[in-house]
Amino acid sequence: MSTRDTHGRPLQNLRISVTDRCNLRCQYCMPEESYTWLPRKDILDFEEIATLVDAFTDLGVDKVRLTGGEPLLRHDLPDLVRMLATKQPIRDLALTTNGILLSDQAEALKAAGLHRLTVSLDTLREDRFVDLTRRDSLAKVLEGIAAADAAGFKPIKIDTVVMRGINDDELIDLIEFGKRYEAEVRFIEYMDVGGATLWSRDRVVSRDQILETLAAHYGDTKTASSDASAPADRYTLPDGTAFGIIASTTAPFCSACDRARLTADGMWYLCLYARIGTDLRGALRGGASREEISALLQRVWGRRDDRGAERRLAERDRDALLSAEQLRDDPHLEMHTRGG
Ligand code: SAM
Ligand code: SF4
Ligand code: SF4
């Protein structure tokens, strides 16, 4: 069964946040001193997640990404990977991590059947890493990337959020670092999602500015092929090195957005910017069958009208989306809860 929303967009891509906890405090995601955490009793167990994934595949989901918070903080994550990897409709099973725990887990994740790995890395400078994340963990992240490469994840993707005056002088260094592992670096525009309480327009480095910086150093870049529903525009440098840019702030890809997000406690969101979600944990723990949950998903997706980033782009006086107080009142509005 393939269901289209009100803009004709299918549901193909599910991002599952397996925990709202994190071992970093990135400035663009978790800059506050304190957070409200999801109650432990509400966190879905692996069987529950697997049942929900079955219902999602009934609607056409064939790409699943595990994320968080920091997904590698979730105990026994390779067990969940193994359960999902055996599901025949899933043709792409990926994970996004900050890499700190990767050197311990890369081999187990590969053995469990994980297809692809994205590691977030915003700087190669130790002092800057500490300023950006409030933790002294750059060496662990670099070790993690080396371990993932050795475990056979090829090509690894490296995601970098670019912030003006913070790390926009490291674009070339990051590309050169990526070359060492044949990893594809993707530069992400700083987004004003829930959690980004320090966001301001002048901190955003746009796709055009990123391309300009790279062209000034390497020479003209060429557009490369990319999947129409993929968020990244892909390019190549004159030496053939591929890289991506996710222009989610200045050129949002809402018109082709086929993704939805499931939080660790079973709330389902149709957009990164959505204020209200659907409580799937309640349905599941209330005894709903897979068929009943699929029917619920179909009804909700059929009414989907979300184009959050496009609507934000049209706003004139634009500041951080939500205040720290609003986020403490409902942690589901946080990027680290809903899974970036
Ligand atoms: N903790 C893992 C990590 O950092 O890779 C997974 C979860 S994190 C929320 C997923 C992605 O969201 C990361 O690549 C992060 O850089 C991105 N992200 C978080 N806040 C963002 C923001 N304000 N703008 C753009 N990307 C953001
Ligand atoms: Fe950083 Fe990811 Fe943690 Fe957010 S969830 S603070 S992006 S490591
Ligand atoms: Fe999809 Fe919402 Fe992001 Fe637009 S803002 S691309 S609709 S998740």
3D architecture notes:
The structure is a single chain. This protein has a twelve-stranded mixed beta sheet with strand order 7-8-9-6-5-4-3-2-1-10-11-12. The chain has 340 residues and is an alpha/beta fold. The radius of gyration is 19 Å and the shape is globular. The chain has twelve helices and twelve strands. Helix 1 (46-59) packs parallel to helix 2 (77-85) and helix 3 runs parallel beside helix 5. Strand 2, helix 2 and strand 3 form a beta-alpha-beta unit. The structure holds S-adenosylmethionine and iron/sulfur cluster (2 copies). Residues 252-254, 257, 259, 271-273, 306-309 line the site of one iron/sulfur cluster.
Q: Main β-sheet: number of strands, strand sense, barrel status?
A: 12 strands, mixed
The fraction of residues assigned to DSSP E strands is: 15-25%
Choose one word for the global shape: globular
Bound molecules: S-adenosylmethionine, iron/sulfur cluster
Radius of gyration: 19 Å
The amount of helix comes to 25-40%
Q: How many DSSP helices?
A: 12
Query: How many angstroms separate the termini?
Result: 27 Å
Q: According to CATH, what is the topology?
A: TIM Barrel
- List the domain count as a whole number: 1
What is the CATH domain class? Alpha Beta
Question: Structural class, judged by helices and strands?
Answer: alpha/beta
- What is the CATH H-level superfamily? Aldolase class I
Secondary-structure arrangement, i.e. CATH architecture: Alpha-Beta Barrel
Q: What average pLDDT do the residues reach?
A: 96
Q: Would you report the number of β strands?
A: 12
Q: Strands of the biggest beta sheet: in what spatial order?
A: 7-8-9-6-5-4-3-2-1-10-11-12
H/E series: EHEHEHEHHEHEHEEEEEEHHHHH
Unreliable residue stretches = none
